[in-house]
Design a protein that fits this description.
By secondary structure, this protein is mainly α. The protein has 5 helices and no strands. The longest helix is centred in the last third of the chain and has 40 residues.
Length: about 160
């Protein structure tokens, strides 16, 4: 109703459609018209025969009563459908923003934990080099710890959302 029937504002003019969109919509409209007028063209495409008469009187009455009921409901609810300038709470406000904040804080905590592990690891390597002992490659221990923490977090999220 508000898209097609209600009057438009003075500054609300749609942009013209490109030619390819006009052609494709015209082809689809033509096919809908042909199938609506000659439904047997569609019914012949089925493997098994179709014994359906879309323009029988009982189909026509059912569709008319359905459209009449929808029209009456629309008339009574038209005021409720008017667009307003109010702001509404969206799913983004309820779920996504708090989860992103929690994940951000969790990643900050992991980053600080990684920083502590890295400094301890560097002091371990420095003492190992000073004692001329053979050490592991740099960052190996903290990398394994972070991978383990990541796997635990992913498993807990999968269990939580399952």
């Amino acid at each position: 109703y508000y898209a097609f029937i209600k009057e438009r504002a003075d500054n609300d003019h749609p942009t013209p459609l490109p030619l390819n969109m006009k052609i494709s919509m015209s082809v689809v409209a033509f096919l809908c018209f042909v199938i609506g007028v000659f439904p047997d063209l569609l019914y012949k495409q089925f493997d098994r025969g179709v014994d359906f008469h879309p323009y029988a009187i009982h189909h026509f009455m059912q569709d008319t009563l359905l459209l009449l009921g929808v029209f009456i409901a629309f008339i009574f609810c038209k005021k409720l459908l008017q667009p307003t300038d109010d702001s509404y709470i969206d799913l983004d406000d309820i779920i996504i923003q708090p989860i992103s904040k929690m994940l951000s804080k969790g990643l900050q905590g992991l980053s600080s934990f990684h920083r502590v592990l890295y400094t301890q690891e560097q002091s371990f390597y420095a003492s190992a080099i000073n004692s001329k002992a053979k050490a592991f490659e740099p960052m190996s221990f903290s990398s394994y710890v972070l991978i383990f923490i990541g796997i635990v977090c992913l498993c807990s999220l999968m269990i939580f959302f399952y």
